[in-house]
Amino acid sequence: AMRGAINNRCADQHENTLYLMDEQGPYAFQGNGVQPIGAPIADFWKDQTLDFSKKDTWFVRVDPLEELVLFFVTVTGDSGSRPRTAFVYDIRSKTWTKWTYGWDVGDCVKLTHSNQRRLIMAVTDAAFYVMNDGLTDGTGVSAVSVNYSWKSGMFSWVESDQGTQRYFRVSFKPTTNDATINIKKYDNH
Predict the structure, then answer these.
(1) I need a labelling partner for 42 at 20 to 30 A (CA). Which of 59, 110, 154, 164 fits?
(2) Where are the beta strands (DSSP E) in 8-104?
(3) What is the 3-state secondary structure (H, E, C) of 92-112?
């Protein structure tokens, strides 16, 4: 297929499909054919947004529970040496989102947690996070501040004469201390 992988951590599989990232961007390989899934985010690989000098720390991981593929990369201007950004591919809806973390991400591994296959993320704040389940850091600390940013792809609005209401839904566990959440909505980019 004339494609490869940036390093040995830039490949992961789910349901007989191999998800990879090379210097042209993300793609999927199934059987003997390449599926070019990365077209919607291809500009990031072309416009010097990514810091290719740190590409040896990039990696790809599949969240088997959520059926998401996370392509971890470093962005130009990031202060750390490891990825803080993940381009996330939803396997079922075939859509992309961009997630940004408040710390450098070293890697993720798949483990069985609460009788389910989950991703465990290791980050530079000396903690391990069970993705989609809060945190586990072994210290018994009950309240930890987590910086997190998520940017969705574009959603199309259905035109209606009935005054359709639109809303955001955020699920979280209540905190014992005061906390703030900021939500921004952009119309027309």
Answers:
(1) 110
(2) 11-14, 17-22, 25-30, 33-35, 59-63, 68-73, 85-90, 95-101
(3) CCCEEEEEEECCCEEEEEEEE
Amino acid at 109: V
Angstrom CA distances, 24 to 42, 107, 120, stand at 8, 22, 27
Burial class (CB in 10 A: 0-12, 13-18, 19+), 72: buried
Q: Which helix (H) or strand (E) holds 122?
A: strand 116-123
- For 114, list phi and psi in degrees, rounded to 5: 55, 40
- CA 129 to chain centroid, in Å, comes to 14
For 89, the 3-state DSSP assignment is strand
* pLDDT tens-digit series, residues 18-42: 999 999 999 999 888 899 899 999 9
**How far apart are alpha carbons 154 and 178 in whole angstroms?**
32
What is the per-residue pLDDT across 129-149, written as a single tens digit (0 to 9) for each? 777 664 444 333 344 445 556
Distance in angstroms (rounded) separating the CA atoms of residues 21 and 16: 17
**Half-sphere exposure for 95 (CA within 13 Å, toward CB):** 8
